[in-house]
Amino acid sequence: MGAREVDLPDVVPGSGLPERVTIWEVGARDGLQNESAVVPVGVKLEFLDRMADAGSTVLEATSFVHPKWVPQLADAEELLAGLEKRPGVTYPVLVPNERGLDRALAAGVREIAIFASATETFANRNLNRTLDEQFAMFDPVVARARAEGLAVRGYVSMCFGDPWEGPVAREQVVVVGERLLDMGCSQLSLGDTIGVATPGQVKALLAAFDSVEPLAVHFHDTYGQALANTYAALECGVTTVDASAGGLGGCPYAESATGNLATEDLVWMLDGLGIAHGVDLDKLADTSKWMAGVLGRPSPSNVVRALRG
Amino acid sequence: MGAREVDLPDVVPGSGLPERVTIWEVGARDGLQNESAVVPVGVKLEFLDRMADAGSTVLEATSFVHPKWVPQLADAEELLAGLEKRPGVTYPVLVPNERGLDRALAAGVREIAIFASATETFANRNLNRTLDEQFAMFDPVVARARAEGLAVRGYVSMCFGDPWEGPVAREQVVVVGERLLDMGCSQLSLGDTIGVATPGQVKALLAAFDSVEPLAVHFHDTYGQALANTYAALECGVTTVDASAGGLGGCPYAESATGNLATEDLVWMLDGLGIAHGVDLDKLADTSKWMAGVLGRPSPSNVVRALRG
């Protein structure tokens, strides 16, 4: 069966929008990290393989955070040892500190990401560090990674609102982001970790940076705003968008659906806008349907439920 | 408890966006018409009263379609007889034909809506008429309603895709829409009845009309595109947006969530964009939580689940 039950309206390229977007697939890391179920490594490997087969070019594979903190990803070494890497696909992994970098290098990783906070309070809560201490922790990680020839992405979390601090000043996000770029990060992923942002705030934050070129966006659908915010970011020229296959990491029954933007919902929009991305919606939806079965609950993605419910 | 668990980021008015938007609340009609449960008239009256109390200014109250086709709204006369109309609030009702108009006039209705199709096939399936016969049916309805001093809205359904015809040509939607305006409709609600549209298609359709002034938009979240499409419409200058409180009419567990855009998700975006609309999110979310309890299932609205889950 085709992915779509009806033909789509004619593609209408949006004026001023990018011709091509890279979908940075975070399902295996950010998604599974936030699922209550611990998924067997074989399932993860099948997931990554199916996503590559569907056309994903960036598959964030896992995290070298201490297993005590994220038991869902305790199999990072085993996963990478079993991973059949495809040509043209990168498999970045999250690295929290120098010990994590050691493990990543030993596993042959060629691209890493670090996870920074835009706010003092979340740095303290998530990393047990001040903002300055956060940078001091990341400095040697990025320096060593770059010396080893690795690409480094910098996540900036809590870019719009913070559960403890409330609204986050754009200037503060820019200061943190520029610091990560100066450190050697080649890309920033600006995250609306609690999902409160709306399109005007997105445009204003992107405009506050010197250049949109190194900026990616990472939206959560907690308040249903993720795709509208993504569209606003595309209008600003952003060409890398984070998404999670089938909305992995959010539960449709949860009191607070805090999941990432579902890759399928993003793909539907990009297809309609005539923006190239390389991901096949049919294979993607099949993969998410299969994964929802593994997790024992429906996908929170509207597209997956509509096409494969 | 406040509606928001965290403070929102600073409001950032979008450049070129309207300063004020009218939310055309369709929950009581389009929402409840598509719920499997038949809701008692007392619940409907409480819903409308709570929505007016929350600040809604347009509450589409019911439909005078034959009860055989829509048993959920068979209590239209009883509802209108029991309705305590608030100053500054209009209560339009859907009228399918002259018989429906007779009933509406007898019930003291001052504003009606007619429901037209943009496509030949859906006109045939939904109304058992050709497009020409559809106009012939509506002509005397609109003429008499206008002669009685009533305002008339024209719904145009299947504006982007049609389950049988596939993509719908913009020119066809414009021809149907202009015909309804010529007939005497003061507003068109352009509906993406099957939820397939994306923002570029929305902008292209709106631009195909001579003026955006009489145009409202009505999006469904079947593929998660409703709010992104709404944002695109706001960028085109649209100032009336249809929405359904708590996403009434869609079920979060359904195989295909075909519901309208949830009013709460729209309000969240409008608040963040600094666009005035008059609806209090706290009271709105309380109302939707209560209604979800009546219906015995959670609301499909992300905002309602996040705030009142």
TrEMBL record, chains A, B:
Residues 21-285 form the Pyruvate carboxyltransferase domain. One of its GO terms (molecular function) is metal ion binding. Keywords: Lyase, Metal-binding. The keyword Membrane does not apply. One of its GO terms (biological process) is ketone body biosynthetic process. NCBIfam families: PRK05692.1 (NF004283). Belongs to the HMG-CoA lyase family. This is Hydroxymethylglutaryl-CoA lyase. It comes from Umezawaea tangerina.
